[in-house]
Amino acid sequence: MIAEWQIQDAKNKLSEVITRAMQQGPQLITKYGEKAVVIISYNEYEKLKKSQGKLSEFFSTSPLAGLDLDLKRDKSLPRKGIDL
Asked: Is residue 61 in some structural domain?
């Protein structure tokens, strides 16, 4: 379960928020009762960065790679409205 902090509490206990982020996981900070930001450890941040691959790599490893897909757009006029 992600811990939730009001912004004023997070300011007053920043060291604790950081320690918990490093030891327990993400810490959610709210502002005016709305979710605002999440504090995560640097290690968690690095994992997230590494999990983002390049879009070109995604398409090249897709099961659809190499298939001859017809990607032509239908240029016919739209249908007329239907009377109900």
From this structure: no
**Which residues of the chain fall short of a pLDDT of 70?**
84
pLDDT value for 4: 97
User: Quick one: three-class SS letters along the chain?
Assistant: CCEEEEHHHHHHCHHHHHHHHHHCCCEEEEECCEEEEEECCHHHHHHHHHHCCCHHHHHHCCCCCCCCCCCCCCCCCCCCCCCC
What is the number of alpha carbons within 13 Å of residue 32 lying toward its C-beta? 0
- 63: its two tokens: 């099961």
How many domains would you assign to the chain? Answer: 1
> CATH code at 15?
3.40.1620.10
The pLDDT of residue 20 is: 97
Q: Name the residue range of residue 27's domain.
A: 1-43
Residue type present at position 62 = S
